[in-house]
Amino acid sequence: MKSWWIEGGSGTLEMREVATPEPATGEVLIRVKAAGLNRGEFIRGHGLHAPGKAKAAGLEGAGEVVALGSAVKGFKVGDAVMGRTMTGFAEYSVIAEGETMPKPASLSWEEAAGASLAQWVAYDMVVPEGEVGAGDWVLITGVSSGVGVAALQIAKHLKARVIGTSGSAAKLERLKAMGLDAGIVARGAGFAAEVLRVTDNKGVRLAVNNVGGTAFPDALASLAYRGRLGIVGYVDNTLKAEIDLDAVHAKRLRVFGVSNKLRPLALRAATVAGFMADIWPAYASGAMKPLIDQVFTFDQLPAARDAMESNAQVGKIVVCMAA
Prior knowledge:
Structural class: alpha/beta
Number of domains: 2
Strand content: 25-35%
Number of helices: 11
Helix content: 25-40%
Shape: globular
Order of helices and strands: EEEHEEEEEHHEHEHEHEHEHEHHEHE
CATH class of the largest domain: Alpha Beta
CATH architecture of the largest domain: Alpha-Beta Complex
Number of strands: 16
Distance between the termini: 16 Å
């Protein structure tokens, strides 16, 4: 089968011909229909790839189940599914049963491919970690990113109020149609004062930092008493930032990271189960759909990555297989 591989040092993408994988115990094998791009996979500073070593690429995908490993009970051959996979940019890929969801009929293959990992990360940050509820203020830096839009959708589903930052006024205007309550044109730092103005100087319950170290001080300064700051992305390639310890101390703040890099399958599966209970029904009913910005063909993955790294998109970029 054809499979895209990424070299850890240079980030070079290479199409390879490799053997079709066999599902192990607790895994399903899918014929991939579409797969989503995730920026973290392509940022070498994230450490998802060891320098000098190449590995199969693709962190989320959607497709049809073609084989089952032993002990799989929740799916059967022929099921349409979506989920987290480390080899999504391939003709076939395996997914752990605990990270597999049925694809709602309301979603296209391309939408399903963009409704897995980024949505689960956003859910993990907003619901179990952020404990966001109705009426709470949420700040999302880099709100037009895949995780940013997912966090916006989930926060609005919970009836929260959302402030987003972006370097593009046009992107913020577009997201107002999806419920964005306030947009701040800012690239990196310089938004805390406006966040406090919008929230009547109270601050936000949760700040989602998709940008990185340059946005960290302002995100921290934007928090309300007992507020929470979730770290998820580094589009600025800045992994260091100063921290106002007095503010953390006095306001009883919480700073946390959201990453699956070191997380065991059992905990990842627990997040998927929570998402299935709280958010998946909105997909099934058609009330919620991931925002897909661009769709490329499978052999256009390098061009799709270029489009993502241009920072022009609003939502997810996906690649799809030929019909």
